[in-house]
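Exercise: predict the fold of this chain.
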Amino acid sequence: MKKFWSFVLTMTLVLFVLSACNSDSPSKEDKTSGDKENNKYAFIFKNTGNPYGEKMQEGFKQAINEIGGEVIFRSPEQPTAEGQIQIIEQLITQNVTAIAVAANDFDALEPVLKKAKSKGIKVLSTDSAANANSRMLHVNQANPERIGRIQIEAVSEMIGGEGEIAILSETSQASNQNLWIEWMKKELEDPKYANIKLVKVAYGDGLRDKSVSETEALLKSYPNLKAIIAPTTVGIAAAGKVLSDKNLGGKVALTGLGLPSEMASYIENGVSPWMYLWNPIDVGYATGYAAADLVNGNKGEVGEKFELGTLGSFEVVEDGEGSQVMLGDPFKFDATNIAEWKDVF
């Protein structure tokens, strides 16, 4: 009898151990919380004080409020990869659930983002991509080819198809800016632009004062300059102010990507006949929902469907060696519609 109860006790202990080993305890590969309110969604923009980034944050917060979870906003003071790397290291120690980043450098964030992924954090880039090894998905605000080509089409129309033009970009490492500029240069290869000459690509580093200085330097270095393309909200607003202050409206055309609220006066006074953008609130909103879809089990693989809240369903498509969801074509803002948009964003 004593041996019988000893056997029963032994078998009970064995079954308990087996049960514990087979339990569904979360692993580092899956940080999805059973209680979505405990999920922490971090958003990192390029730098602080950027109006475009602030609008993206607004949309991101709206999405996470709808989904449920905690929002964490962090951005470096200057638009550098080093500043973002430090922030990502801190977020890893905070055990966040997901990190969305508008990358200041395509490749430099790879080691720290791969570290985050190894800890089970869902990583995606938005607006300005990190390379495919660094993230699970990229949220693209619009078709990069159309963004680049349409700005050359616009500037050609503004200057009658001939003259010197310059580009005022953000930073030399910004992947989205560089990709758009590549498509601008490809568009310029068309023989119909034979009389247009791109004289310089300048960099304002996403900073207002430097963008002002770079605009002034372009005007001084190229007295025959006919137009400036600024595919950056900070840069186009800075260039608009310089051209307005110097009464160069109608002499040096300005187009690019800008916030309607900041560009309304320059469109109304003719300095910028028209410019383009998308709604940065929507881009941030889509990013929040995409982050949640990754947390909830999507892998960011080509062919998957991502449900992005009120924006609808989007299919994941190729992005070089990685994958992305692409929101749509850029929207044209001109004198006919700027009044209705300038109070929106």
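Check your answer against the key: The CA atoms of residues 28 and 337 lie 50 Å apart.
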